[in-house]
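Lecture notes, part 5. Sequence design as translation. It can be helpful to think of inverse folding as translation between two languages: the language of shapes and the language of residues. The source text, in structure tokens, appears below.
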């Protein structure tokens, strides 16, 4: 399948997991009625609380992914599950993406590699590594709907990851996210369009929106971008779904016409692809 519809869902995820999943299923049912082949969800789509002392993690065989597997099978649809906090037997959870096929089977799992750690005295301290463990694998997968690459949120700021995914063959790269408002307003669209143009690929960036803690707002502005860098679908601030058609033959054309992958100089510099 080289041309098909993707449904991108922007969420204002709250603390009630069952309610969040119910709203997600309503979007999936609507997407099914419009012949969507794949649904993409945002980062931490199942449960977010203002109180970070509450443990929102769960194992991959827990209620969220079990529910999403049932939805994938019920509606016969590929589902990119955004991410959840994946509980471990010991230690901190991972921030984890799960990709499901229309039979409700797990096709691929990606654990967020880059964690946002910053400490600027008198200005900001944010240590994601105090809440989550970093993954260590670059993940892409060949499927019947194309070669798909997986990233999460802050990974967007590391172009080498996107280049590696493209060298592995990725035609579509997912960026589920929960960008803060200030950095989102300044950088979100620019970085996403750059990643699409640099690598001649589609970017599907489903985002969180809404106020997550007092005076802390998620940026929203979910975007689908084609290999030319054009925005083909966008959601601004509301919780909503938008549908757009991807044509993977466009990836081939753009990589032929702007052959930045072929014109690399690995004799001078090198990124390890395995």
């Amino acid at each position: 399948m080289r041309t098909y519809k993707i449904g991108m869902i922007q969420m204002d995820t709250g603390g009630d997991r069952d309610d969040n999943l119910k709203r997600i299923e309503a979007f999936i049912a609507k997407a099914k009625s419009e012949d969507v082949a794949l649904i993409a969800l945002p980062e931490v789509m199942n449960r977010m609380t203002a109180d970070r002392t509450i443990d929102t993690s769960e194992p991959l065989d827990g209620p969220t992914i079990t529910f999403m597997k049932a939805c994938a099978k019920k509606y016969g649809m590929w589902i990119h599950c955004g991410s959840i906090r994946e509980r471990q037997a010991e230690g901190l959870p991972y921030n984890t993406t799960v990709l499901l096929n229309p039979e409700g089977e797990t096709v691929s799992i990606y654990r967020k590699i880059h964690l946002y750690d910053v400490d600027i005295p008198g200005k900001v301290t944010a240590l994601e590594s105090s809440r989550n463990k970093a993954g260590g694998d670059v993940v892409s997968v060949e499927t019947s709907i194309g070669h798909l690459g997986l990233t999460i949120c802050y990974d967007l700021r590391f172009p080498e990851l996107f280049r590696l995914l493209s060298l592995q063959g990725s035609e579509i790269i997912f960026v589920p996210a929960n960008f803060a408002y200030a950095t989102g307003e300044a950088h979100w669209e620019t970085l996403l369009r750059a990643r699409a143009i640099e690598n001649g690929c589609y970017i599907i960036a489903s985002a969180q929106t809404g106020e997550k803690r007092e005076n802390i707002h998620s940026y929203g502005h979910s975007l689908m971008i084609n290999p030319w860098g054009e925005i083909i679908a966008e959601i601004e601030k509301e919780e909503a779904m938008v549908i757009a058609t991807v044509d993977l033959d466009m990836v081939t054309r753009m990589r032929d016409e702007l052959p930045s992958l072929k014109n690399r100089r690995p004799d001078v510099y090198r990124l390890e692809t395995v």
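The translated text above is only one of many valid answers, since several sequences can fold into similar shapes. The radius of gyration is 18 Å.
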